[in-house]
Amino acid sequence: MKTARASLLLLCAWMATVAAQAPPREGDFVIRDFRFRSGEKLAELRLHVLTLGRPQRDARGAVTNAVLILHGTGGTGRQFLARQFADVLYGAGAPLDTTRTYVILPDGIGHGQSSKPSDGLHARFPHYGYEDMVEAQYRLLTEYLGVRHLRLVMGTSMGGMHTWMWGESHPEFMDALMPLACLPVPLAGRNRVWRKMAMDAIREDPEWRGGDYAAEPQAGLRTALDLLLIAGSAPLPMQRDLASRDSADRYLATTFKTRIPGLDANDLLYQLDASRDYDPSARLETIRAPLVHVNSADDFINPPELGIAEREIGRVKRGRFVLIPASEKTHGHGTHTWAALWKDELVALLEDSQRTASR
């Protein structure tokens, strides 16, 4: 009887939590005559956004509980609804409990349901860069959502790079910064090489036809996806899960069968090329908010042996770097989305930034 009563109380508590959490909301913000750093202009730039929770306002009407989370290359804001992320961060009592936190998940330019080449312009779409993407995010927050201060900016991979840029371009806009799976220096060395190889594979496929293809250039996309799979791979879990030649071959065949249909050559080419203007290295000292930079030791794209993160974090006044050791629980570059592996660092950052803000 006591066990049944306890179970009923737990169920009631769970139902109350679910009822208190507002369902996800989606919207589109259209910026008229958006001018890109390249000098190109788009008559209507559409930015799609997903939000969780509701904004809370102070006596002046300012939103006080907003958190911005930024996705990586080829991703969308919806990726942060995956269980390994959402179940760890959004539930009752979790660091970004959506009964208390207003979580903002935009699709970057060229991604998801935001404006992108495959909408119709193809290779005539403006050649956006990371600076354009951050500027559009800023306008989405201030002009569409009415948010002028953030509790936290957090991003994964490309979104992590955008997080560094947010800290420099709008240093007073946030209480805390958490870039994951990235480095605060220009993309060079092997990181640039594999991206250039993927872009060249698309451009050199005869079926690409300068971006005006009738059907997707399959050979170019196949090679680009080959490189993306290697860049995002995690050696220890893959060795465990693909323990034979046949299982590895089946994995590759299944992956291509499921992922190729969702790719557009122009979209992918633009997404990879957008990193060309990324370089926060000259202004790291201007970052004011507490910052925790997190990488994993099995990240092919940001290998720890470079020592870049350890060197550069010393230039960030309130910065700290955390390297997650490689294990069968890490996921290579994709460790950024497995929140259980770095949740404690987020909790510590939020607590530290709260103390800083109250001084």
Write the layout of secondary structure elements.
Blueprint: H1 2-20, E1 25-35, E2 41-52, E3 66-70, H2 83-89, E4 102-106, H3 130-145, E5 152-156, H4 158-169, E6 177-180, H5 189-203, H6 218-231, H7 235-241, H8 245-259, H9 265-273, E7 291-296, H10 308-312, E8 319-324, H11 343-358
Parallel strand pairs: 3-4, 3-5, 5-6, 6-7, 7-8
Antiparallel strand pairs: 1-2, 2-4
Helix pairs in contact: 5-6, 5-9
Keywords:
single chain; 359 residues; alpha/beta; Rossmann fold; Rna Polymerase Sigma Factor, Chain: A; 2 domains; eight-stranded mixed sheet; 8 strands; 38% helix
- Helix share, percent: 25-40%
Number of structural domains = 2
CATH superfamily of the largest domain: Alpha/Beta hydrolase fold, catalytic domain
How many H/I helical runs? 11
List low-confidence stretches: 6-20
Mean pLDDT equals 93
Strand content: 15-25%
Order of helices and strands: HEEEHEHEHEHHHHHEHEH
Major sheet strand order: 1-2-4-3-5-6-7-8
Kindly state the number of beta strands.
8
Shape: globular
